[in-house]
Amino acid sequence: MSTVPVRLTVNGEPHEVEVETRLLLVHLLRDTLGLTGTHVGCDTTNCGACTVHLDGEAVKSCTVLAVQADGAEVRTIEGMADGDKLHPLQEAFWNDHGLQCGYCTPGMIMAAADLLQRNPDPTEEEVRHGLEGNLCRCTGYHNIVKAVLHAAKTGKGGTVEVPAPSQQGAQSAEAVAQEIKP
Predict the structure, then answer these.
(1) Which of 74, 85, 136 is nearest to 106 (CA)?
(2) Total-model pTM
(3) What is the pLDDT of residue 182?
(4) Residue 28: Cβ within 10 Å count
(5) Domain check: are 115 and 130 in the same one?
(6) How far apart are the C-alpha atoms of 164 and 102, rounded to whole Å?
(7) Is residue 45 in a domain?
(8) For residue 157, what is the DSSP state?
(9) 3-class secondary-structure state, position 77
(10) Which residues have C-beta within 8 Å of that of residue 40, sequence separation ≥ 6?
(11) For residues 122 and 168, is the Cβ–Cβ distance under 8 A?
């Protein structure tokens, strides 16, 4: 199968890789770049374990082709901390016991950061609604919601450097969409 070049910035670091056009973003992140914090749970967008930020918005990377991220800024769970200092959401999940096995945690944190960027002072109902696309098979969500609300109270739960949407990434996505139209 033929490959195409993809240029993207992941967690602030530029990357240029050759990928097959069918490669999913989640596999580029995990298998090519070695960023294994983004998990593969279902490959059908049901669980949210693969949630990352693409040009500042939460997406499920198991349904985004790597070529659609050409020219884009991607942030994974590995890019949330500032060196050894955890992101406020990571701190809140730790302090409020918002994790058990940890498999869903990266996706939950990425979805929660997206929610808090859009709504810095959510109600419990808004947090539950905002996390609906992310499944946890271990908990009853009580401590996850508690952690998100705690991070929101600090006023920094959604604070992540939000890149401007990339025009090149949007153009690449449109080109790919045009290629795969029947």
Answers:
(1) 136
(2) 0.84
(3) 52
(4) 25
(5) yes
(6) 30
(7) yes
(8) T
(9) helix
(10) 26, 27, 30, 49, 50, 62
(11) no
Cα 1 to Cα 19: distance, rounded to the nearest angstrom: 10
Residue 168 to residue 173: CA distance in whole angstroms: 9
Residue type, 9: T
Rounded CA-CA distance 85/104 in Å is: 21
Question: Does residue 100 register a pLDDT over 90?
Answer: no
The answer to whether residues 140 and 169 belong to one domain is no
Give the whole-angstrom CA distance, residue 138 versus residue 173: 36
Other CB atoms within 10 Å distance of the CB of residue 38: 25
Report long-range pairs for 166-172 (Cβ below 8 Å, ≥24 apart). 166/55, 166/71, 166/72, 166/73, 167/71, 168/70, 168/71, 168/72, 169/8, 169/54, 169/55, 169/68, 169/69, 169/70, 169/71, 169/72, 170/71, 171/71, 172/67, 172/68, 172/70, 172/71
Token pair of 75, please?
Answer: 């942030």
- At 52-86, the pLDDT tens digits run 999 999 999 999 999 999 999 999 999 999 999 99
In a domain, 33, yes or no: yes
